[in-house]
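Batch queue: ligand-bound targets. Current item pairs a single chain with guanosine-5'-triphosphate. No template structures supplied; prediction is de novo from sequence plus SMILES. Inputs echoed for audit trail.
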Amino acid sequence: MPAHNKLSRLQNDGHYADSFEPNDEREVYDADKEGLVRQLLGRLVEDPDREGLKRTPLRVAKALDFLTSGYRMSAEAIIKNALFEEDVREMVIVRDIEFYSLCEHHMLPFFGHAHVGYLPNGKVVGLSKIARVVDVFARRLQVQERLTSQVADALMQHLGAHGVAVVMEASHTCMMMRGVQKQSSTTISSAMRGTFESDARTRAEFMGFLER
Ligand SMILES: Nc1nc2c(ncn2[C@@H]2O[C@H](COP(=O)(O)OP(=O)(O)OP(=O)(O)O)[C@@H](O)[C@H]2O)c(=O)[nH]1
Ligand SMILES: [Zn+2]
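Prediction returned. Tokens below.
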């Protein structure tokens, strides 16, 4: 088991200590968190020490670390090394990017697809980086609307684009497995920035591509 705890490098204000490497996807081990999950398990089940549950607190702690790893990642760092000068002015769309996030109200998954478009301004970005930026914000405790806006704002800020459009469609397990128990409803959210916000034809062109 790793002796150090990477999370300890996270400062209280949510920023990273200088020594922290952004976008380090290595596994985090946090003994405190494992203990807290063990306590919770003790309240939930009759025998938290039975064989099948012995390593569950460790597994849950590691899973939660992964599912919130977006707090330790930086969209800027992902984008800045993958921007290429290219005289492209037409719309670029990456659609059907699957994502998984946790709703901040219940810490239950919501998941679906993101569709991202942008209008380049002399630079294009490596396509995989757009999907990585979706993950940076999806791997946090979220509401879908904020997730959508954060992806749009980060891309707008770091691409130098004329505009960015993000549409996300998701199923919320907190509405499916509990609460209102609606299995088929999906939620669509959008965030339009720059030309996509100011020009209805650009927005319509983007939406048209999504219909295919
Ligand atoms: N706007 C928005 N709401 C969300 C999202 N995820 C979950 N919610 C909602 O957050 C609300 C929380 O409402 P509360 O009344 O405080 O919680 P609750 O008693 O568990 O609500 P129910 O789910 O209706 O049982 C619920 O209506 C959820 O459906 C999201 O991404 N965006
Ligand atoms: Zn919820």
